[in-house]
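quick one: 6-hydroxymethylpterin-diphosphate bound model?
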Amino acid sequence: MHWRLPRGVVALDRPFILGIVNVTPDSFSDGGRLADAEAAVAYAERLLDEGADAVDVGGESTRPQNLGAVPVEEEMRRVLPVVRALRSRRGGALISVDTVKAAVARAALDAGADVVNDVSGLRLDTAMAATCAAAHAGVILMHSRGVVADMATFAHADYGDDPVGDVVAELSHAVERARAAGLADESIVVDPGVGFSKRSAVSIAVLAELPRIAAIGRPVLVGASRKRFVGELSGVATAADRVHGSVGAHVAALARGARLFRVHDVRAHREALDVAWAILGPRLPIADTA
Ligand code: HH2
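yep, here:
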């Protein structure tokens, strides 16, 4: 299993950790901490030093009570200086940009980003797929419904008899959008979007039935870090304190076929996932040779 990025191929032969760098005033668990670019770059470097394989730089929160849609210029003002500085200070580092806007993605790719993490799965900006294809970017296609302001709510959380089947079908459409625009299959990673347009029971079902997501045929990323269902299951109300529950969710996801993990707490996940991988990796049913 591997992932083709503009500057080479990443072998997914151990758990891949994407460290979260939210350059936002309002993210649900860490908003406002990294208000300026210098703080964000230093934080990203720390995550890389703790064992992150890449960092995911985001300038717009999906938090339901967020401060309103972020204009494209403001999102660029938040994200681009971080991408540029990181690229110049850490030449080899893999950088992802978390955006649903093609203009932001294009500017970030020009500034040295390798991956576009689109939480709308190429739904919300019709120029996004072509933008990523033109740059041969890696893409993370996440399942969600609705717009940024409501995708992390239950506004679109009604499913049929087989919610996981509905997620698989909708995520498969995202992969088709990517292919239609000319993106290579090898550039695509899929993500079931835990907590996005999903009540906790559906988020849990999606993780339990992750082999059905993996059957789409692309590597699977899971982002359960600090999320609401983790708090409910572990009884930890404060999002930033949900590290142990997050690790538990991600180790379970690893056992069910996930290979990439978007996390806040990098060191804890590096240690836990490496240990879990040494035990599970060679014995997992999903072939690692794809
Ligand atoms: N979750 C969030 C944001 N981006 N991207 C992917 N691929 N998968 C996820 O599960 C995912 C994501 C939400 O988490 P966070 O960045 O911590 O919060 P916020 O959106 O409030 O900035």
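The pocket of 6-hydroxymethylpterin-diphosphate is lined by residues 20, 22, 24, 27-29, 58, 61-63, 98, 117, 119, 140, 142, 191, 193-194, 221, 223, 262 (CB under 6 Å).
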